[in-house]
Design brief:
The protein has 286 residues and is an alpha+beta fold. The chain has eight helices and 15 strands. The structure holds N-(5'-phosphopyridoxyl)-D-alanine.
Length: 286
């Protein structure tokens, strides 16, 4: 960790030398946004989509994008080159910079731009097949969950509540409907029909979610983007959570009750295989 090289405001420096002033609005207010880009065989996965989402997040909080797509690409490829391992997860963060503490935006500000990359190991397929346990919790987050904001207090409290209950994720319910996980999107399967909540301000538009939908549809499976009630979640044959770091993870125990037959389901197996093939194609073409 300590020998990793990070990017901060135009420079590549060892992690332990990267410092941000305490008046940075990211520290004071959580006033910033971020991205997490998975990297397979030194190649960023779905980079264009991640950069587009970063641009949307920045626009939503009224920060001009400090870098062009080419400049982001250069920062990301430098981070990948300077850090060990073929598979990595690149983290990017932009905040509204350093200013005297005041809720209103500072007049002229220089955004703080930070990037780091950590080694990422593929989840062990045998372990994933066992699935994980989740609990449902009230979605106590704000109303702009489509913005990938660094202000993640509600998410981390919800995730910790799940961990305290021996689970890997909290599946969140708002007004009787499933929104997403504390740090993942959610899919359910009923009679071979795959469903995930539609993209709106209650969910982060997950890049992995889009890949799963694309792969399902292009392989003749039915995948709907439609609301899922709490009751439908409880009666699902299969439940999956998706994210850039966890890929597609089956949930086999929900609120202490077995989901389906208690093992990763047949539809998950199919989607998981398609996802791995898709990744390997990218790896082999790199
Ligand atoms: N989080 N929903 C939330 C609230 C998330 O935090 C994430 C991912 C996702 C999945 O998005 P994607 O498929 O683009 O990774 C959905 C990242 C991994 C994180 O915060 O570390």
């Amino acid at each position: 960790m300590s020998d990793s090289i990070v990017y901060l405001n135009g420079e590549f420096v060892p992690l332990d030398q990267a410092q941000v002033p305490v008046l940075d609005r990211g520290f004071i207010f959580g006033d910033g946004v971020y991205e997490v880009v998975p990297v397979y065989r030194k190649t960023p996965f779905r980079l264009e989509e991640h950069l587009r989402r970063l641009d949307n997040s920045l626009r939503s909080i009224r920060i001009d994008n400090p870098c062009t797509p080419d400049e982001w690409q250069t920062i990301i490829s430098q981070l990948i080159e300077r850090n060990a391992g073929p598979d990595q997860s690149v983290y990017l963060q932009v905040t509204r910079g350093v200013a005297k503490r005041d809720h209103g935006f500072p007049e002229n500000f220089l955004p703080t731009v930070f990037g780091m990359s950590n080694p990422m190991s593929e989840p062990d397929p045998e372990q994933i097949k066992q699935g994980g346990c989740a609990i449902t919790l009230d979605d106590t987050r704000w109303q702009h969950c489509d913005i990938k904001a660094v202000t993640l207090l509600a998410n981390i409290l919800l995730r910790q509540q799940a961990i305290d209950a021996g689970c890997i994720e909290a599946i969140l319910i708002r007004d009787g409907e499933v929104t997403e996980g504390a740090a993942s999107n959610v899919f359910v399967v009923h009679n071979k029909l795959i469903r995930t909540p539609p993209k709106d301000s209650r969910v982060l538009p997950g890049i992995t979610r889009d890949v799963v939908i694309e792969l399902a549809r292009s392989n003749g499976l039915t995948c709907e983007e439609k609301a899922i009630s709490g009751a439908e979640l409880q009666s699902a044959d299969e439940i999956w959570i998706t994210s850039s770091t966890r890929e597609i993870m089956p949930i086999t125990l929900l609120d202490g009750k077995v989901v389906g037959n208690g093992k990763a389901g047949a539809m998950w197996q199919q989607l998981y295989a398609l996802y791995q093939q898709h990744k390997h194609k990218l790896r082999n073409s790199a």
